[in-house]
């Protein structure tokens, strides 16, 4: 047994799980947001959601990392939807727990380190949602095709088709970006 189901009721199991996965989750979030306070909040939200969902975890459906990335993806997507309600988000700032200067510094470093990944994600924004998600989970987050298929809730074969299409579209976009009138002449 992976121990994931135990994080919902065993504080020691949760602490072990948290320590094992917090850096991966922080990197996942830092690739998608630029605000260190928001990154800290979303990371905490991912683990709260994991505790709530732990009883439903099924080891035969995939790894704990894939399961946790699926939760993180849903949490980040939920935040993006809430971003439209900017006034409400500003009101939440006052209720956040205070971060130490070291916490903010570490999160800023992590956010800076993930800047190129955020640029890649922005470029991938032109892809259809399913293809973009497939490419993002493998190329940016480093998941295996099996884990990424688990995150998206699809079969591995369908995932590989999406990934192939996404790579093809990005290659053709790259060729269009590289082709300049000067290159055409030479």
Automatic annotation (TrEMBL):
UniProt domain RNA polymerase sigma factor 70 region 4 type: residue ranges: 118-170
Highest taxon, organism lineage: Bacteria
Keywords: DNA-binding, Sigma factor, Transcription, Transcription regulation
Every RNA polymerase sigma-70 region domain range: 17-85
Family: Belongs to the sigma-70 factor family. ECF subfamily.
Stated name of the protein: RNA polymerase sigma factor
Pfam families reported in the protein's UniProt record: Sigma70_r2, Sigma70_r4_2
Record bears the keyword DNA-binding: yes
Record PANTHER family: RNA POLYMERASE ECF-TYPE SIGMA FACTO, RNA POLYMERASE SIGMA FACTOR HI_1459-RELATED
Annotated SUPFAM superfamilies: Sigma2 domain of RNA polymerase sigma factors, Sigma3 and sigma4 domains of RNA polymerase sigma factors
Highest classification ranks of the organism: Bacteria, Bacillati, Actinomycetota, Actinomycetes, Propionibacteriales
One GO BP annotation of this record: DNA-templated transcription initiation
MF annotations from Gene Ontology: DNA binding; sigma factor activity
């Amino acid at each position: 047994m992976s121990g994931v189901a135990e994080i919902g009721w065993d504080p020691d199991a949760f602490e072990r799980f948290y320590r094992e996965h917090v850096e991966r989750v922080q990197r996942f979030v830092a690739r998608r947001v630029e605000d260190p306070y928001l990154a800290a909040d979303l990371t905490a939200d991912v683990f709260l959601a994991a505790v709530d969902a732990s009883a439903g975890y099924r080891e035969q459906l995939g790894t704990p990392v894939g399961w946790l990335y699926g939760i993180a993806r849903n949490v980040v997507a939920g935040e993006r939807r809430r971003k439209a309600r900017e006034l409400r988000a500003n009101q939440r700032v006052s209720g956040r727990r205070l971060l130490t200067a070291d916490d903010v510094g570490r999160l800023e470093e992590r956010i800076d380190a993930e800047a190129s990944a955020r640029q890649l994600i922005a470029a991938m924004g032109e892809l259809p949602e399913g293809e973009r998600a497939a490419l993002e989970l493998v190329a940016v987050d480093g998941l295996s095709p099996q884990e990424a298929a688990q995150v998206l809730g699809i079969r591995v074969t369908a995932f590989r088709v999406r990934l192939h299409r996404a790579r093809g579209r990005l290659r053709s976009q790259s060729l269009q970006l590289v082709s300049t009138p000067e290159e055409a002449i030479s």
